[in-house]
Amino acid sequence: MKNNVQELVNKGEMLPLMEEFYTIQGEGFYKGTAAYFIRIGGCDVGCHWCDVKESWNANLHPPTEINKIVKNAKTYSDTIVITGGEPLMWDMKPLTTKLKAEGLKTHIETSGAYKLTGVWDWICLSPKKMKLPTEEVSERANELKVIVYNKDDFRFAEEQAAKVNKDCILYLQPEWSKRDKVVPLIVDYVMQNPKWKVSLQTHKYLNIP
After folding, report:
1. How far apart are CA 94 and CA 61, in angstroms?
2. Which residues of the chain are modeled with pLDDT < 70?
3. pTM for the structure as a whole
4. Is 168 labeled as ligand-binding?
5. 192 is in an annotated binding site
C-alpha cells in the first residue's frame, strides 16, 4: 500500500472495503428491517467458526474513499450497519460523521476488542473469548449478542452480561454450523433465564445476504 494511501487509511478517510449491500437485517434487535451493510476488511480476533474469514486480511480489500462509501449508502437506506471483519480496527469517526451529516442512522456490529471510535445510534456487541471487549464498548452496548458454539458459551455469556449496562438487550445466537445441536440448549437456557432472548440468523433461512 502506498504511503499516502496508508496515511489516509490510518486516519479513517479511506477504509479497506470488502463489500457493501442492501438487504434485510437478519440478527438481533433490528432483525427483519431493511439496512445497508458496509463490511470493512481486517480482523485479528480469529474465530474458528467465522463465516466471513475472507474479511480477515485487510490487504485483500481495496482502500476506498469514505465519500464514495457514503454516496453509495445514502441512495439505499436510512439505516447503515458497519460490520466486518472488525471495524473498530480502524478509526470510524470520519465515516460515521459523514453518514450522520446525511441524516443516516449508524449501527455497528463489533467484538468490542478495540477502542470505540465513531458516532453510533446502535452498538451490537458480539464478544469473543479470544480477545475480550473493552470496558467502554461493554458499557455502551445497546445489545449483547453471544454466539453459542458449545455449553461453555453460556458461562461466557453470563460473564459478559455482567459487564454491560442495565438497558442492554441480551441475545444468545446459535453458531450456524452447530444450530441443530445448540438450538435446543439455547431454548432451555432462555426459558430458565428469561433475561436472555434467542437470536437466529434469519437471513440464512431467507437465503439472502
Report:
1. 19
2. 1-2
3. 0.95
4. no
5. no
